[in-house]
Fold TetR family transcriptional regulator.
Amino acid sequence: MNLLIHRKESIILTTIDLIDKYGIHQISTREIAKKQNITEGAIYKHFKSKNELMLGVLDYFSQYDSDLFLTAQQKETTEEAIIFLVESFSSYYENYPSITAVLLSLEIMRYDEALKSKVEDIYSTRFVFLKKIIQKGQETGEISPKLSSEMLTDIIIGTCVALCARWRLQQYSFSLRGKCLEAVNTILGSFIQDKINPQRRESID
């Protein structure tokens, strides 16, 4: 059983590497089998179809989300929670560059009916979680309400995804984690109440 589990995960990892190398449209079970030194039929012992394999890739891509969300919820401030999420995701991507090919292929995958629901679930879950954190910060007065929680969520996620794309295009020539943290700290610096109005902290104290 352990050997079967190992082979299944190995097929998923090979698929991710091939998406990174050739792009999502160029992936075939023949090429995956060749890289694995197995027959195409062996792949179908683990996955009933190519779409089921791609669902496995998406599950692998998002496997840490629940644990990260749980830890973020335990942070004392909204700022700490957001920084934790950005640092965790960007560190994971920086240490596993190939997985970012999946991140940047989500929009393409969404047009496949067999994958659409899973892709939208991943994106929606991440978006809604971050939005709720920001909403909570606005309700407690930590985050300025001058932008809606939805817009601020879009800015943070969009900035990090754009940096990820540039990181890949520039052959991983800079620290993705460093750039994402720098960008998000800059964004939050404009919306964290105590940073845009230091006198507010003094009056509270």
Remarks:
- The mean pLDDT is 92.
- The two ends are 60 Å apart (CA to CA).
- The longest helix spans residues 113-140.
- Residues 62-188 form a domain with the Tetracycline Repressor; domain 2 fold (CATH 1.10.357.10).
